[in-house]
Write a structure and sequence with these properties.
heterodimer, A: mainly alpha, MetI-like fold, 10 helices, 74% helix, 0% strand, elongated, B: alpha/beta, Rossmann fold, six-stranded mixed sheet, 21 helices, 24% strand, globular
């Protein structure tokens, strides 16, 4: 605990980003019990109300409480961020390890990765979402595929330089197997930059999810997310700007928090290495 | 005596809090006169480079000057306004660095690099500048200036790069040249040329030179006066001959006694060739051409090398960089597959699929700082090989502790990470780790080259005593002839991938037969000076 405090004092960005993100996670987990309002309850008498003590973030055209919807939607948005980071992190790492250690696989894997990178991410996502059923899983997969090459490249690059390290050669001489060298000697050396990259991936995934939902290609309307709440308010922007403003601000601050965390993590890990 | 060009008075530089000592440099006083080379010599961490960098005003921000004056022609450089210091630094003070590859801007060709100081600090026109560049290139003896001036740093050889850097430094005829280990990264024959060049230019232009080095041979070669530094202080200062031939301070004496050479040999003559442990027959290694070269030939690093090594015998493979000595070692250890030929250890062909390589061959690498996994404890590294063989953890641990104690470290080292150890200690750990496998052949690939002289001497002694205790054969790859003659029973000299001469260590050292060996030995710094040869002979 004291060690964590000392770390927080030395790396302000890490602490602030972490606290903000923890706040968002808490909000997502406890959302349903907060404020009392039901995210789906339509109150025809309360349509398009401006922010007030009753509706903190105002209400939308169906009379739903925007605050309750934003809180409810934070679960979906954060889940997409986390799941995409995990998915592309795991798959990308595996591909990167294979490419970086097995010489003949390198060319094949990396050319495929180049191919994926050459297609704009949003196009892949749109194509996948329109072919498959809309749902949380589809959105996560659609966004995750774009980020796999970034992870694979990072891991492969790190492995190529680690492969030349004398301590890796020494392990070879001691009879350590290929898997032992990759997982016990090399992978730990990649974890720090990998963690940093994954936080950035989580942040950009949340943005891409919001974009997809805004275009009507993301999560179905019955799962509120920050993106589709904004999509809902798009046509009413001049009349009721709060429907877009508040989820937009929330999204921006959540992404900011995660990016702050990532930068802080990078500084902290670099300081430790130095 | 005339006013010195540089006078350092009671200079102290503080280390950041938490360092092993309070000051990097403590109350150092030096003088460098016009037309004189002062060598600042010491081991790593002695403060010699910090002194040089403080003089140039190039200290990293973590280091703070706490006291003293640095007078250049009577003006205190430490108290000059930054703009004045900058212009002085360009024109009157110049510096050359250890690693010319990183010190030269890779985006400019050599000619532009040399022209740069002229463009910034003089009002010469383009034609005049070009003439001056040609003149400078002739001065530093760069051949074919027309072609070389269009080449970039990576297209030049190490010696040529260093000559370009010297030409840049001399472009404005500085009054003081500071050289920080300028020949350390060079081969011995290249080094000889660069040292002769610096000495010659200095004699012609009267430039004062402050020359930082760790190599006493280089000091003997080039210095008029010497200052020996230890732990931030100058412990002895005087004329080169006085200090090196008749050292007064105990530290200087200890350093000179630790210099590798035949005098430190600890190997009784041994009956020749009993059972061969290592048999190399017709080994060759050709690296494939890089990139998509059409019909480009590969690089032949090792050509048809044959050698053998008996039980408990040490063979030193000596050569300059690019001679193929490391490729040879790596082929024998099968870290790279050979292109042709056979290697057998203890009668077993190493290319056989079922051969238990780890128990036959082990390697100790050059850089102890990178040879141990920085995230693992020493204990984890020490038992790795035995655990791979299926040895129970308790037994592996006891073998590891025993070997650590034999190399002079305690059992408590097991729980620490490599960061807690010095370079010499790390190399001891690497030796112990290799020996946990009880190999028949130990390959030391430049294993003491990264170490200071005194540490080097200890590690060499350790290798010898471990060899006597455990009976392994040692293939010792080195660029340093003196190290080779100290540790080896036999020496093989490599040049362009081939062994050009092979024989008993002392015989090769005293009467080299091949022309290349003679050139190599003749290039050893300091040999020009009779008093240095005599001092070395006395140590022998």
């Amino acid at each position: 605990m004291t060690a964590a405090l000392a770390l927080a004092r030395r790396h302000g960005a890490l602490a602030v980003g972490g606290l903000l993100l923890a706040g968002f996670v808490l909000l997502a987990l406890c959302g349903p019990w907060l404020g009392g309002a039901d995210a789906q309850a339509m109150l025809p008498g309360q349509r398009l109300r401006a922010p007030s003590a009753l509706h903190w973030f105002g209400s939308d055209r169906l009379g739903r409480d925007v605050f309750a919807r934003v809180v409810h939607g934070s679960g979906a948005s954060l889940a997409v961020g986390l799941a995409v980071a995990l998915l592309s992190g795991l798959v990308g790492t595996l591909l990167g390890l294979l490419a970086g250690y097995v010489r003949w696989l390198d060319g094949i894997i990396m050319r495929v990765m180049d191919g994926v990178m050459a297609i704009p991410g949003i196009m892949v996502a749109i194509a996948l979402v329109s072919v498959l059923d809309a749902g949380l899983g589809t959105v996560i997969a659609a966004i995750g595929i774009n980020d796999i090459p970034r992870v694979a490249r990072l891991v492969r690059g790190a492995l190529l330089s680690l492969r030349e390290e004398p301590y890796v050669e020494a392990a070879t001489m001691l009879g350590t197997s290929g898997a032992g060298i990759v997982f016990r000697h090399m992978l730990p050396g990649v974890l720090a930059p990998l963690a940093v990259l994954c936080t950035h991936i989580a942040a950009s995934a949340m943005l891409l999810e919001a974009t997809l939902s805004f275009l009507g290609l993301g999560l179905p309307p019955d799962i509120p997310s920050w993106g589709n709440i904004m999509a809902d308010g798009r046509t009413l922007f001049r009349v009721a700007p709060w429907i877009i403003l508040f989820p937009g601000l929330t999204l921006a601050s959540a992404v900011f928090a995660i990016n702050l965390l990532g930068d802080g993590l990078q500084d902290a890990l670099e300081a430790r290495r130095g | 005596m005339a006013e010195p060009v540089l006078r350092i008075e009671q200079l102290s530089v503080a280390l950041p809090p938490g360092a092993e000592r309070g000051h990097a440099v403590e109350a150092v006083s030096l003088e460098v006169h016009a037309g004189e080379v002062l060598c600042l010599v010491g081991e790593s961490g002695s403060g010699k480079s910090v002194t040089a960098f403080a003089t140039m005003g190039l200290l990293p921000p973590a280091l703070r000057i706490t006291a003293g004056r640095v007078l250049f022609h009577g003006r205190d450089l430490l108290r000059l306004p930054p703009a004045e210091l900058r212009s002085l630094r360009g024109q009157r003070l110049a510096m050359i660095f250890q690693e010319p590859m990183t010190a030269l801007n890779p985006t400019m060709p050599a000619g532009r690099l040399i022209e740069e100081p002229l463009r910034i600090h003089t009002s010469l026109g383009a034609a005049a500048r070009r003439d001056r560049v040609r003149e400078l290139m002739a001065l530093v003896r760069l051949p074919e200036p027309e072609q070389l001036s269009h080449r970039y740093a990576h297209e030049l050889s190490g010696g040529q790069r260093q000559r370009v850097m010297i030409a840049m430094a001399l472009a404005l005829e500085p009054a003081l040249l500071i050289a920080d280990e300028p020949t350390t990264a060079l081969d011995v024959t290249t080094q000889a040329g660069v040292l002769a060049l610096i000495k010659d230019i200095q004699a012609r232009t009267g430039t004062a030179v402050l020359f930082v080095t760790h190599d006493f041979g280089v000091v003997a070669e080039i210095a008029d006066r010497v200052a020996v530094m230890q732990r931030g202080q100058v412990v002895e200062q005087g004329s080169a001959e006085a200090v090196l031939a008749a050292p007064q301070h105990a530290y200087t004496r200890a350093l000179l006694a630790a210099l590798p050479g035949p005098g430190n040999r600890d190997r009784p003559p041994r009956p020749a060739a009993d059972l061969a442990v290592l048999e190399v027959r017709g080994l060759s290694k050709t690296y494939p051409p890089r990139g998509l070269g059409l019909r480009r030939a590969g690089v032949a690093a090792v050509r048809d090398v044959s050698l053998s090594l008996g039980v408990g015998e040490t063979l030193a493979v000596v050569g300059e960089s690019g001679s193929g000595k490391s490729s040879l070692a790596r082929c024998i250890a099968r870290l790279v597959p050979p292109s042709g030929g056979t290697v057998a250890v203890a009668g077993q062909d190493l290319s056989a699929p079922d051969v238990l390589l780890p128990q036959l061959v082990q390697v100790v690498f050059q850089d102890p700082n990178r040879s141990l996994n920085p995230r693992w404890t020493v204990g984890q590294s020490m038992v790795e090989g035995l655990r791979n063989l299926g040895t129970p953890a308790v037994e592996a641990r006891s073998v590891a502790v025993d070997l650590l104690q034999r190399v002079g470290l305690g059992a408590e080292a097991m729980a620490r990470t490599p960061h807690a150890f010095s370079g010499g200690q790390r190399q001891r750990i690497c030796i112990a780790r290799a020996l946990t496998m009880r190999p028949r052949l130990l390959i030391a690939d430049e294993a003491v080259s990264a170490l200071d002289v005194s540490v080097q001497a200890q590690v060499l002694l350790l290798l010898g005593s471990m060899q006597r205790d455990l009976g392994f054969s040692l293939l010792f790859v080195t660029h340093d002839l003196h190290v080779a003659v100290q540790v080896a029973d036999r020496i093989a000299v490599m040049h362009r991938g081939e062994i050009v001469e092979q024989g008993p260590a002392l015989a090769v050292f005293r009467q080299p037969k091949h022309a290349y060996t003679q050139e190599l030995f003749g290039s050893a710094p300091g040999r020009r000076r009779a008093w240095w040869r005599e001092a070395m002979a006395r140590l022998d």
